[in-house]
Amino acid sequence: MTDKHLPNTQNDHSVINSSLELANSHYENFPVASMFLPQYLREPIGLIYSFARQADDFADEGDLSIEQRLDLLNGFRNELELLQAYIKPKSSFFASLGAMIKVKKLPYDPFYDLLDAFSQDVTKTRYADYDEVLDYCTRSANPIGRLLLHLYGQSNAANIKLSDNICTALQIINFLQDIAIDFKKNDGKQRIYLCQDEMAAFSITESQIKDFVDGKQEIDENWQQYILFNLHRVNALLYSGKPLGRILKGRIGFEMRMIIAGGERIIAKINKVNGDIFNSRPTLNYGDWLIVFLKALMKV
Description:
Structural class: mainly alpha
Number of helices: 15
Order of helices and strands: HHHHHHHHHHHHHHH
Radius of gyration: 19 Å
Strand content: under 5%
Number of strands: 0
Oligomer: single chain
Largest sheet: none
Mean pLDDT: 90
């Protein structure tokens, strides 16, 4: 076993290939383990993404009850605990994940933080203020960036701060993009990541959001101003982390600049439709990806 590669067993390769396929098949606003990264990084990133994607789907997808969702997430916790105790895990996926964590010397805390956030998704549907949203992001998004920095060998306090700003911004961008989708989740109880105090300040009510989602009402100026307020704030947060794209060198820096540029494109597209994500949910198309690629290449 080399320092750069995972164990070379047929089962490991099967799990890794499945993880990379999952990364390539699920829509994201940013590249995940793209071809621009060397293979020795693509494989562990694929495993990390698969862990997060599977756990997130436990919280969000299908018709499971709250208890069933939490049981599945607890199953992932139990597997992590087995790995930490040097006990063979129950699934081949966690065997491969554990081998990668050991080889790459990754911390376990970010994995537990992700599970805490996804468990919170199952039980918490409202966020009182921006501090609560930020607290959620520290566990739902920032752990991914921190794990990547460990993989890159670039984990220091300054880089972690920049990475946290980028990851939190990307999470909030996703909240704005998916307001209608999230509203339909959580067993019919509607999940709203928007800050309750800010909604009140802009005279936005939940009944209005329901009407927007159901197509019974067109968005109004209050909603447009509210979304514009959110876009300005998240754009500033993303911009504050942007130097990381230049600090990281080579292909990992290029990948980071693509990630940032993907977030910038979604902000621009939400702004272009005046916040009407209900009728025009913004996603990245081939033209957008070309722009993302060129911005990353030119370091702008």
